[in-house]
Amino acid sequence: MTDVANQLFIGGAWVDAADGATLPVDDPATGEILCHVADAGPKDARLAEEAAVQAQGDWARTAPRARSEILRRAHELILERTDELARLMTSEMGKPLAEARGEVAYAAEFFRWFSEEAVRIDGGCGILPDGRNRMLLSRRPVGPCLLITPWNFPLAMGTRKIGPAIAAGCTMILKPAPQTPLSSLALAGILKEAGLPDGVLNVVTTSRAGEVCEPLLRGGRIRKLSFTGSTAVGRLLLAQCADTVVRTSMELGGNAPFIVFDDADLDVAVDGAMVAKMRNMGEACTAANRFFVHRSVADEFGRRLAERMGALEVGPGTRDGVDVGPLIDAAGRGKVEELVADAVERGAQVLVGGRTPDGPGCFYPPTVLAGVSPESRLMDTEIFGPVAAILTFDDEDEVVSRANDTPWGLVGYVFTEGLDRGLRVSERLEVGMVGLNTGLVSNPAAPFGGVKQSGLGREGGRVGIDEFLEYQYLAVPVR
């Protein structure tokens, strides 16, 4: 690949790793190496930290309107380069170009949204109840941040964190996933072009995440961690943040229930299932994992879903007409294969798919399993692949109990024509978000996040900027 940034971005400059190390970026559709990028080590992390710390004071004092205008310019530049960014994203993580273009628009919207929030940071003032003091409340940036993003939405997960940090007046170190560093490096170039001052955003690509991140979190100068990834890694990072009480936001794993009641419009439910399951080839924390379908409509729902899933075209994301690209890597596909094999051994019926195709690339076909045993491993494991596992239920209390029987609580989906039932069941689900008769909940204007072991805090929406701000209370005597 040519004309693709492949160095670290530190202090506004493109630099090689201090020890000269590089890491390969693979094309999951072919298994071939696209390019090599700098592989940061501890010394590079210290340089990025120093750049962020040095830039923090001036950046915090920058006028909110100036921060807003930078985000707005970056939003426009992203949209102008939709095709270029989409092809880059498809090359490094596999999603079809149509989906990649959709992610570019989604990513850009976070910058537009937070450009508008940047000028709405307010405080408050009033007389305290005893009448002795006035209370002045102001909101200040929390300080230098470490942002860690996953590979499945490499552009949007960056803008969802960078947008509110810029709007709040925080400097940053961004560590993207090693599988998909190119989108983040391209984003850094766009922000520099949009006028972001040197040192405000630093990007360190690395295969040595522990060596890079742990010293930053334990060192005392990074004041905020925003992480999207697995619950297991999130727990480890929380422990590393404890020593210096680093403020944290965690968007972790999911195990989303998809509930179809007997009065559901099955056309609507199947449409919703296709979105909730097949967005990003199922490689999404919001992906429907456990399909609970009322016994009276389970066969028909399964038949319709299998027909729709079986009609999807699988292939390289750059090829015209492809609906489903490869999974991210061989390990990701191997996990899906093992989960499906386990379910079949426990009695599940394969309605469509279920067999790994021959040839290069990390492809797995859209798969529907019926009659899945509750003891199957995929019932308590985030599948992260194009597999819909159908179980049946008989009554509302039963399905709510089974849906909540998980340590995760990111999102749930409910399909019913009864408004009362829909609202009642949604309120009973132990999740941070619910899609009622829809398979898509993500939106830059809405707060994204979960409960239980699915995370801490919220991203996006009016509350998204709060994660990067602190209150200061000033008492002034009344005279």
Automatic annotation (TrEMBL):
Q: Which InterPro entries match?
A: Ald_DH/histidinol_DH, Ald_DH_C, Ald_DH_CS_GLU, Ald_DH_N, Aldehyde_DH_dom, Aldehyde_DH_Superfamily
User: Which residues are named in the active-site annotation?
Assistant: 251
Cite the entry's keywords alphabetically.
Answer: Oxidoreductase
Which residues belong to any copy of the Aldehyde dehydrogenase domain?
14-472
Alphabetical list of Pfam families matching this protein: Aldedh
Give the matching PROSITE patterns: ALDEHYDE_DEHYDR_GLU (PS00687)
Q: Which family does it belong to?
A: Belongs to the aldehyde dehydrogenase family.
Among PANTHER family, the record links this protein to: SUCCINATE-SEMIALDEHYDE DEHYDROGENASE, MITOCHONDRIAL
Protein's UniProt name: NAD-dependent succinate-semialdehyde dehydrogenase
